[in-house]
Write a structure and sequence with these properties.
heterodimer; A: two-stranded antiparallel ribbon; B: alpha+beta; eight-stranded antiparallel beta sheet; two-stranded antiparallel sheet; 12 helices; 46% helix; globular
């Protein structure tokens, strides 16, 4: 695929989430850098030099400093659980797992604020464990078992890795931990018949 | 089942009953949910997807959601059957075209549908005919509560229900109404209305959701943001604006009748004429003409057609429905010929033939 602004190969595929609408950009490295820098610096009000698209969406909302270098470092950070890199997220506009919201909380916050105008959920909450551990003052309690349950994503990945290096002992340890966590937090099904 | 049964019934959103159903086709609420112990769908392995599908399918089957649900394994359906579910608005286009294990549980009334492994692990939808957002919201709350008892949803203390795309995070709710607005289109006021909707952060989409073109003067209006306000506030945000648009549309229709009666009468009569006599006709043109005839009937300019029939035709002339009704696969050209034939027969035969199953 060609860059949308020149004849070079497009290597950056950017999905902008603008007020609910999705816009896709396919750019070569140079144009992508220009575009991303514009978006960061101007907070959406990019100069219209050469009539470039303005970055008011995803890239524009990322409050990650001014340089492409800093962005490059952030891009390489990966989620401990599902392994998605920040670059992959920016590229696809889709997160990898629930833990990303914990791992990238700081980076996602400006983006979420940009999309929704707010960052605190005020709606319904799972009833599961809602009364437990509300001692922490203002912070709303996490549903019981959340950390252990999302940890299963990580364990499953490690189990797969153990299998691929033929460390079956480790793999079966992981499998047992996963089973134990799921049995602890996911209620059994009572099927009739 | 089941797909074949659907072909001959008529879905909730085209029933054409309920409050304000001359303008509001249907009211819909959907919730996006994910389970805590698996990666989101786009990051999930084939095995993950299988396990998520099995877990949700088994659990949904036992949840007392107030309706008997039937499960359809979308991954193993023929393309035409998947397309039929899209035309019926029971699954999204994305869900139809996706890969891997996925399915949908629907109730026979076609009010409740639960998509498994769409963009999120679970998308719950409740759709009611006419303007009934509160009814749809009350119903979906019950479904969500019952499932939540047996499924560990992914939830964050600040960001709320976690979704694959940050645009849905928080409540995960999308509240929408499907409106038929020919008056505003003809009087060229529609853009103005949409601009003011955008200003209060409501989104306008076409008939089949995100990225789809508005066809036949049908538009979906929905909330844009999902975080920082309660579900009730978001239901109300959409609910508050609907009466205003209804009022604009009624006034536009009155204006048309008062000031340009001859023109409008001519337009709807020609539309009716083409539908009754065409030998080949595309889905888009059919939709456009049916829209005009629908308005003509509501304005009393066409006497012998029922709104329920127009609504039924809107869905039955779409590609998958047409092929299922005919019982064979047809290419675009043949579909256009078959569509024209179906329309002629429908209008000629009155209540006979194809219409026996329309309520």
């Amino acid at each position: 695929m060609k860059c949308q602004q020149c004849d070079k190969q497009a290597v950056f595929h950017i999905t902008e989430l603008e007020a609910g609408a999705v816009r896709e950009l396919h750019l070569c490295e140079d144009h992508a850098r220009t575009y991303l820098n514009q978006s960061e610096g101007g907070g959406g009000g990019a100069s219209d030099e050469e009539g470039k698209p303005k970055g008011s969406g995803l890239a524009g909302a990322l409050d990650v400093g001014q340089t492409a270098d800093e962005l490059a470092i952030l891009d390489q950070r990966a989620c401990d659980h599902c392994g998605i890199t920040f670059f992959e997220f920016r590229n696809q506009g889709r997160l990898g797992c629930p833990h990303d919201y914990v791992q990238f909380e700081k980076e996602l916050e400006p983006l979420i604020a940009n999309i929704h105008g707010m960052i605190e959920h005020t709606g319904r909450r799972p009833s599961r464990g809602a009364t437990a551990g509300s001692a922490e003052g203002a912070a709303a309690p996490l549903p019981e078992g959340t950390d252990e349950l999302t940890g299963v994503i990580c364990l499953r990945r490690e189990m797969k890795e153990a299998i691929s290096r033929e460390d079956y002992e480790k793999a079966s340890e992981h499998r047992d931990s996963i089973k134990a966590i799921e049995e602890r937090w996911i209620p059994p099904l009572h099927k009739e018949g | 089942m089941k797909i074949d049964t659907l072909t001959h019934s008529i879905g909730e959103w085209l029933r054409g009953t309920g409050p304000e159903s001359d303008i509001v086709m249907s009211s819909r609420v959907r919730l996006a949910r994910n389970v805590a112990n698996y990666p989101f769908v786009s990051r999930a392995s084939e095995q993950d997807r299988l396990e998520v599908e099995k877990m949700l399918r088994d659990r949904i089957a036992t949840a007392p959601v107030g309706r008997a649900l039937e499960y359809i394994d979308v991954g193993h359906l023929q393309e035409v059957d998947r397309q039929l579910l899209v035309e019926r608005q029971l699954i999204s286009r994305e869900h139809a075209e996706a890969q891997g294990a996925r399915g949908v549980a629907i109730d026979v009334m076609e009010q409740v549908s639960l998509m498994i492994n769409e963009e999120d692990h679970l998308r719950i939808q409740c759709m009611h005919s006419g303007l009934d957002l509160l009814g749809a919201w009350e119903q979906i709350k019950v479904v969500d509560d019952q499932i939540e008892k047996i499924v560990p949803y992914a939830f964050h203390p600040r960001f709320g229900y976690l979704t694959a795309c940050p645009t849905n995070v928080g409540t995960g709710i999308r509240v929408s109404v499907m409106l038929h607005l020919p008056g505003l289109v003809i009087t060229r006021q529609i853009d103005k209305v949409f601009r003011s909707l955008h200003k209060i952060s409501l989104a306008v989409r076409g008939l089949y959701g995100e990225g789809s073109q508005a066809m036949g003067d049908f538009y979906q209006i929905s909330n844009q943001t999902t975080l920082g306000r309660t579900e009730e506030e978001l239901v109300q945000q959409v609910g508050d604006v609907v009466p205003v648009i209804i009022d604009y549309e009624r006034r536009a229709r009155e204006f048309l009748v008062r000031e340009t009666q001859q023109n409008v009468h001519d337009q709807v009569s020609r539309a009716y004429g083409i539908l009754r006599t065409a030998q080949t006709i595309s889905a888009e043109e059919t939709m456009q003409l049916l829209s005009r005839v629908r308005m003509g009937v509501l304005l009393g300019l066409i006497g012998d057609v029922k709104i329920a029939d127009i609504n039924a035709l809107l869905v039955r002339t779409q590609p998958a429905h047409l092929q299922k009704l005919r019982g064979v696969e047809l290419d675009t050209n043949d579909r256009n010929i078959e569509r024209a034939r179906y329309l002629r027969q429908y209008f000629e035969e009155g209540d006979a033939g194809n219409r026996s199953s329309v309520n």
